[in-house]
Amino acid sequence: MELTINNKKYDVDLASGETLLTVLRDTLDLTGTKYGCGEGVCGACTVLIDGNPVRSCITRIETLKDKKITTVEGLETNGTLHPVQEAFLEEDAFQCGYCTTGMIMSSVALLKKNQQMISEKEIAQHMNGNICRCGVYPRIVKAIKRASANINKG
Amino acid sequence: MKSTKPINDIEEIQPDSLHHFAIDRRQFFKMLGSGLAVSFVVTDSLANGFLDSTLIDDVDEKQISAWIHIGENEKITVFTGKVEVGQNIRTSLAQIVAEELHVPLPAIEMIMGDTDLTPYDRGTYGSLSTPVMGPQLRKAAASTRELLLETAGKEWGVDKSFLKVDNGRVVDTKSQKSISFGTLAKGKELLQNINDDVAVTPVDQWKIAGTSVHKVNGKAFVTGKHRYTSDMNVPGMLYGKVLRPSTFGATLKSVDVAAADAMTDVIVVQDGNFIGVVAPSVSIAEQALSKIVVQWDSPQQPGRKEIFDYLVKHSDGDRSAETKGNVDEAYTEGAVKIDQTFHVDYIAHAPLEPRAAVAEWKDGKVTVWTGTQRPFGVQEELMNTFHLSKENARVIVPDTGSGYGGKHTGDAALEAARLAKAANKPVKLVWTREEEFTWAYFRPAGVITVKAAAGKEGKMMSWEFHNYNSGGSGIETPYAIDHQKVIYHPVKSPLRQGSYRGLAATANIFARESIMNDLADELKIDPLEFRLANLQNERLKNVLLAATEKFNWKNAKREKGHGFGLACGDEKGSFIATCAEVVQDDSSDEGIKIVRVVAAFECGAIINPGHLESQILGSVVQGLGGALFERVDFDNGKILNPLFSGYRVPRFNDIPHIEVVMLNRKDIPSVGAGETPIFCIAPAIRNAIGSATGKKLYKLPLLGNSMT
Questions:
Q1: Is the full-model pTM beyond 0.90?
Q2: A73: which chain B residues are within 8 Å (Cβ-Cβ)?
Q3: Most buried of B116, B302, B457, B609, CB within 10 angstroms?
């Protein structure tokens, strides 16, 4: 079966019946997407499917025909970081960094939906499915606000 | 009157081993030379271009070359056995070295936690990296700077006093002639001894240290390019899985591995109580495990319902922390008295990256990449298990997906190494979340009893404090009390337990600060005034004053249903005070909502204010979990909530408004900050709930285990 990941086409053996997370990490060596819980409740494995945030650890690849999958590896354009990545760096919005790629993918989805400036409450609501065990949530909120401001500035 | 303080050495609780390989039971013949001092070995990674010259064997740790190398390409490589688990020590140690060498931060490359390349280190725990490794590298870097100045002086025939270092060059201040560090050092080893009395840059002249530089390798994390152990991919690598026993303490009754063994490309390993499989993919390994027919004998063991009675009844002796005066007499004479028992549940570290290891054997030498806080401890475990000399067991720790005191052991490393040995190929083994919640170790559960009395005017008189099982850290009271009996009672815990961020200090300070609050209530004295009146340590008073001032403790309006609480404490040379405001909220499951928190912290001179703030924020947030809802539920040797859907941790919606106040004491050497800021959030919230609702709570977590 053919998967479209970060605008590239990959041929994947469907017989294995794996989750998208396993295919990304073990088959395609795209390890920016992380395993955290295996039940879709921690957000570490978040990727975008047609722009929407999805937990890849509970997503079967059979469901992904003709869909556009974006992982953290696909965020940079011509070597330039995505504004959300820049904002996470600027705000030091991580400690160990293990949740960071999932946080960034969820944030990218949020900011795509919300072109206007968003409130801290809306951010918390949208991001509640992503766990940062190091607990730097307030910095992540700041990073998302910074990214939102930068995107809106154009 | 006797005062004994033997308790400080027992802070770190070492978890029991998870496996007893059959190989362990044979006599282990100590290899000739295994007692050698740690030495550098020329390795592949060195030859692969980490450095542009090779270090040689047997480098003395007293010498600069054990810690710092300057390449001909101007790259400065720093070696430390500390590991990066999110506390940002990679950044702050690099800042310290850059400061002394007067080079820009990007000139520094840190090699961390590699037993072949870095000097021996006991481990990254106990908030020791900043107070111990910081000064070590500062002296090494300052000695390097002096050596470079001397070398240039000799070469030019100029007195050293006319020379300075600037931006990676030695400069003659008279002639303005200059030479780069790389040209001077020529890539050679810096064999001079580190001068313990070398002049280091005074804190008020710091230009790189003391500033909020970003995480040095941050870009690798936001792009997903950093490879944690669980992301590694070694050529020819296979995947391992381990068959877990049915319960804690279960022993193997019978096993039939034939069906699994018959599978194509699957290797089954049985060694003592250990059964594992190696396969070309995780899912095939899981299929193989499911084909193993196994029966376990499981002993009867206490569940969560019985645990607190169990701990008190099974206390295994007394370890006195403080005995002075006569507590019984003084208690009788007190004007207000409290006699209370506190319960603290087992909680899990739940690092977002579960335990993982990649192991590879080559010519009798095993190399294991793994996320651990003790690379040299894991090396020793490998040496003991597989009868290896130091030179034949190498542990490398990639920057790891957190630890919080939970990754002191080498469980995954041993498992991967055992499987890789059988497969004769590299093996990767990553624990599932359920394995991590079940087979890692926990922060100990505990029972604490306190009998305390104060005089009518608010002077503390008597303090009797017993801690069963959770540990001796933070057990001593900072309040001036003439009559004290403070005892830690160790217990053989039914669940595997070990270190945790801040260790038992969270439990001990929770009990102590709750009692102090309730005594003040009974005396009708403001809890801040009551504490200040009984405290002597100025640094502790300072954080208390800083927190309450920011919080506006004295003047803030207390709206209906709102309550304020505070707590303070110190450990390992750093000081924390936390204030919390809560409000009754009948619309939420918990019945209360935390409105705001102020944490004031002091740990000497601040090396990186931004990253220090993250450590304090992170401690407050992680502490919220243990304070409000984290607990491990278990019965008869089984964990009943081994998933994030059953074990609630703090999330975005749980986070109140948090303000952090950092006191920068430039006159005091820096100490660590990863632990102490976690201590006071639980008692501050508990005391605020008391003030809002009149309910006095005596259990951690405070709110039971309601799910999101």
A1: yes
A2: 223-224
A3: B116
